[in-house]
Amino acid sequence: MIKIVKQENQLxxxxxxxxxxxxxxxxxxxxxxxxxTLRRTFTFEGADxxxxxxxxxxxxxVRTFVLAIADGDYYKIRRNLLGLTHDxxxxxxxxxxxxxxxxxxxxxxxxxxxxxxxxxxVVGGNAxxxxxxxxxxxxxxxxxxxxxxxxxxxxxxxxxLKDYLGTMSDAQKKLDTYxxxxxxxxxxxxxxxxxxxxxxxxxxxxxxxxxxLKDAETYSEKDWQKLxxxxxxxxxxxxxxxxxxxxxxxxxxxxEKVKDRFIDLTLVDANGTIDIVEIxxxxxxCLLSRSxxxxxxxxRTDLSGSVMQVEKYIFHLNxxxxxxxxxxxxxxxxxxxxxxGIKITNPKGMIILGRDLDFATDQEFDxxxxxxxxxxxxxxxxxxxxxxxxxxxxxxxxxNYSKLGAAPARSRASAGK
Length: 417
Prior knowledge:
Blueprint: E1 2-7, E2 10-16, H1 24-31, E3 36-38, E4 42-44, E5 49-50, E6 62-71, E7 74-77, H2 79-82, E8 88-91, E9 102-103, E10 107-108, H3 109-116, E11 122-123, H4 133-141, H5 146-161, H6 171-181, H7 191-214, H8 221-235, E12 239-250, E13 259-269, E14 274-279, H9 301-332, E15 349-352, H10 361-373, E16 378-381, H11 383-404, H12 412-415
Parallel strand pairs: 8-11, 14-15, 15-16
Antiparallel strand pairs: 1-2, 2-6, 3-4, 5-6, 6-7, 7-8, 9-10, 12-13, 13-14
Helix pairs in contact: 5-6, 7-8, 7-11
């Protein structure tokens, strides 16, 4: 049995032999100049042995070792004692017992952590980079149990042999069932920061857009486009760059010569793929006809013209192909990340224009049909549609992040503070 004891400026480990053995094997190993390893976790030298006996058990079955020395607010445990790359530091006020160090089947907790990182491990306290006690306790509670390891081993064997032996049990299903019942790891402590940042970002865009829409007439077309495209980079983080006034080649309009055309705004995603965005100021009554044609509202010139313009840009880009990719990259590489490539791969279009707050039900229906007609090529959004999307994203973040970041039950480590 192992017991961790805090004593003045030291952290001690008391080893008590089981009833069928005594502790003299430790003395014999030290006399041979060997080290001893307890529970496959702690490795001590003879110099670590404390010349004392447990006052509660004066028999020859107890040996006490110096596990750590106090160093400011922390206990420092030598790296070779636990087989680590760096010394371990544990906050002196945190509760400690053998479960802090040893998981099921004598798995060394800190050695497992050490295999995954390349820096010192610090638990608790206020040191930079330290693991909070609640999170560390969460880690201990979610180390694989003996049952889980058994199920996993059975599942691996079954996976290898099931194609050859017809009587194999469904070990994988048992493992999945066990893992589904097991309490899952609480989301990382930084989830609260992400919730605040993400929701705050979208709330900012929503509020700014609402304010701009109240005074849209005071903005020039170019200034309006620059502000909206900046919002789009926040709303759609897959885009990493904006290319303004992009020059492309038109091989079809004039059979005698190649024409230059210019796209006001293009977006480039993280893979280098180009998409086109058409942003119009929110003029009233620019989407649907005032009257019906055969019981249907039809798109007005602003809407149909924007769609046609984007479709022609897409057509010319696709026809330009690999030569166009090289030409665009050569001219605009200073606006792109280093080592970046441009890809013209079925570009998509995005059109933002108009308002839809005053739509009647049948107008909403007809407008939705128009949007869906072009959905495989162009995403058509009104400014009110954009506001609604932002509101739903904010709701999603606050709802889902709050579930992920829900405070766990009071942990063993934090309870001992």
